[in-house]
């Protein structure tokens, strides 16, 4: 795959990922967020932490001037967040289809991460 296609894949998956994770900061106090946290047995304050963290992580991935090492940590944090969401939902609701919805974000995250590293390695050549 050439560098142009890799860049296109990176930006599409990263933008979709950002659209998936960043808006949660605008709904921190929504009834749905509060109910979701209660349903999972988590404290409401945790939704603040997650929402703010996901917003910051999405920004870090989108902004090209952020150092590579910080981007790496954003990928890790968002990966832990999405996998933890699956674990929490399966633990509470069982293995029903909606419990695996966060895996969509995880898939986007993986594709973004792999393409990001392909871009970085092509810069070194």
Layout of helices and strands:
Elements: H1 3-21, H2 31-39, H3 44-62, H4 68-93, H5 102-123
Helix pairs in contact: 1-3, 1-5, 3-4, 4-5
Shape, per Cα inertia axes: elongated
Nearest-integer average pLDDT: 94
Q: What is the SS-derived class?
A: mainly alpha
Uncertain stretches: none
Quaternary state, please?
single chain
Please tally the helical runs, counting DSSP H or I stretches of 4 or more residues: 5
Share in β-strands: under 5%
What's the number of domains?
Answer: 1
Helical content stands at over 70%
Extended strand count: 0
Distance between the termini: 15 Å
SSE string, helix = H, strand = E? HHHHH
C-alpha-based Rg, rounded: 16 Å
How would you sum up the major sheet?
Answer: none
Question: Which terms summarize this structure?
Answer:
elongated, 125 residues, mainly alpha
Give a written overview of the molecule.
The protein contains 5 helices and no strands. It is mainly alpha-helical and 125 residues long. It has one domain (3-123). α1 (3-21) runs antiparallel to α5. 21% of the residues are buried. The mean pLDDT is 94.
Summarize the structure.
By secondary structure, this protein is an all-alpha fold. Helix content is 76%, strand content 0%.
């Amino acid at each position: 795959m050439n560098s142009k296609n890799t860049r296109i894949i990176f930006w599409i998956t990263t933008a979709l990922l950002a659209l998936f994770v960043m808006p949660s900061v605008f709904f921190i106090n929504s009834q749905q967020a509060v109910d979701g946290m209660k349903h999972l047995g988590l404290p409401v304050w945790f939704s603040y932490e997650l929402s703010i963290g996901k917003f910051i992580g999405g920004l870090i991935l989108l902004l090209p001037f952020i150092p590579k090492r910080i981007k790496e940590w954003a990928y890790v944090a968002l990966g832990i967040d999405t996998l933890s969401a699956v674990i929490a939902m399966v633990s509470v609701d069982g293995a029903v289809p909606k419990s695996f919805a966060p895996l969509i974000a995880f898939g986007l995250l993986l594709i973004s991460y792999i393409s990001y590293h392909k871009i970085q390695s092509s810069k070194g050549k």
